[in-house]
TrEMBL record:
The keyword Phosphoprotein does not apply. The keyword Repeat applies. InterPro entries: 5peptide_repeat. Keywords: Repeat. This is Pentapeptide repeat-containing protein. It comes from Petrachloros mirabilis ULC683. The lineage of its organism: Bacteria, Bacillati, Cyanobacteriota, Cyanophyceae, Synechococcales. It holds the Pfam family Pentapeptide. SUPFAM superfamilies: Pentapeptide repeat-like.
Amino acid sequence: MRAIILTALILIGLVSWFGAYSGSTPSRSEGEQPLDSPVEIPGEAVSPASVPPVAFGEPSGANRSIEEVIERLQWTGSCIGCNLRGLDLSGVNLVVFSKPDEGGLLGTETAAVGVNLENANLSYANLQQANLERAYLRDANLESATLQRANLSRTILRWASLRGADLSEAILTGGKLQDADLNQAILQKTLMDGVDLSRATLTRANLRGALVRDAQFQDANLQGADLTEADIDGSNFTGANLRQSQLPRNFLSRANFCRAILPDGTVHGTCPQS
């Protein structure tokens, strides 16, 4: 009986030993990688230079903060081609500082040529002498912004709000400002040749001494605007509202006022022959 029990125990031990041996994980040879580890393929490594840059304002985990955008603009004076669409930059001071080793203020020039600022909030921002040539500012909020001597030539400002903005001595040559709101904006001595302000609101705007030759003001609202000493030669005021506005001398012979409401409230019936 004891022999039978001893034999059974030996058999159970052998079975257990064989089971443990068959279930064990074999050791990896040197250099062999586990199945769940990333395998490096020669020539397929991704370098930092191959990763596309992230544009300012684009949704991304590497998205730059507003503070970084401002810092770049202030210290480098450049944001050429940046995408700042929809950012809130209200009240920001974009006065450009000099490089750390130069000391003092470099001035207020900021280069943002071709920048995308569609629907951005720049209300009360300081953009003196900023270079915003060819910038895209459709639907942007520039209410009460300071844009003295800024370069806004060929800039898209359709439907933008420039209420109370100071654009004195700025350059708006060839700008597209259709349907823009420039209520009480300061455009004194501003260069506006070839600008398109069709259907724009310029009520009580100050355009004294402005150069607005060959500009488009079709159906614009200029009620109470001051165009004293402005050069309006060749401009088109067809259907514009100029009630209670102040116009330069001999204005009727210098521009097209077809169907425009003149300062005294009368409608000018003389239209150029097609």
